[in-house]
């Protein structure tokens, strides 16, 4: 029977790689480097999928050992084992996971800030400026729209 701690080294390696990618992502977000971000995304997806699979394996092993087949089962299993090395590996994994969660939170804020900036720019491009009454703008599908004076009639 596979021990629940068997996946911990691989999980630790993957979460470490994910943290490094998220730090790189943060630098790219600050620099507004969309191309660089596009290259990171597939690598992040693979790491997250691998982490999810390793977690499922650990949960299954916990369930087979008679503990809750979830994160909550790990602490009681470790206590029952008395394995200080596994406890240390688990604690390091939890610390790295907390670091990844914080990076994810900050990166999310940076993404929201960039999206707000982009929306402001788009609004400015779509809003006619004073003195440019005859300007024409192009929409997302290439259609033109302008702010030229309209011919509205008042009926009374």
From TrEMBL:
Keywords: Bacterial flagellum biogenesis, Cell projection, Cilium, Flagellum. Signal peptide: none annotated. The keyword ATP-binding does not apply. The keyword Repeat does not apply. It holds the Pfam family FlgN. Required for the efficient initiation of filament assembly. Belongs to the FlgN family. This is Flagella synthesis protein FlgN. It comes from Massilia jejuensis. The lineage of its organism: Bacteria, Pseudomonadati, Pseudomonadota, Betaproteobacteria, Burkholderiales.
């Amino acid at each position: 029977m596979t021990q629940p701690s068997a996946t911990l080294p691989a999980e630790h390696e993957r979460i470490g790689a994910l943290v490094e990618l998220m730090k790189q992502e943060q630098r790219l977000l600050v620099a507004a480097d969309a191309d660089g971000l596009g290259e990171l995304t597939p690598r992040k997806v693979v790491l997250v999928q691998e982490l999810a699979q390793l977690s499922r394996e650990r949960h299954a092993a916990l369930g087979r050992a008679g503990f809750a087949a979830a994160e909550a089962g790990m602490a009681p299993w470790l206590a029952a084992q008395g394995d200080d090395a596994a406890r240390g590996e688990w604690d390091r994994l939890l610390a790295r996971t907390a670091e990844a969660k914080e990076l994810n939170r900050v990166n999310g804020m940076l993404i929201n800030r960039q999206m707000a900036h982009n929306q402001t720019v788009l609004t400015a491009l779509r809003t006619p400026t004073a003195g440019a009454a005859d300007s024409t703008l192009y929409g997302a599908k290439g259609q033109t729209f302008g702010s030229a004076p309209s011919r509205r009639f008042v009926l009374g």
